[in-house]
TrEMBL record:
Protein name: Uncharacterized protein
GO molecular function: ATP binding; glycine-tRNA ligase activity
Taxonomic placement: unclassified sequences, metagenomes, ecological metagenomes
InterPro entries: Gly-tRNA-synth_bsu
GO cellular component: a single term: cytoplasm
Pfam families: tRNA_synt_2f (PF02092)
A biological process term (GO) from this entry: glycyl-tRNA aminoacylation
Amino acid sequence: MKKNLLFEIGTEELPPSCIREGVSGLKKILEDKLTENRLEFKDIQ
């Protein structure tokens, strides 16, 4: 059974220059951890 998962991350207090790098880093970590734990996923946006 496939389900959606939504993370909401408050970035109001971060400088804009940090947000893009942080999001791409978080995406990579999440992909690695899901794969490591054999959890199938279609896409991370």
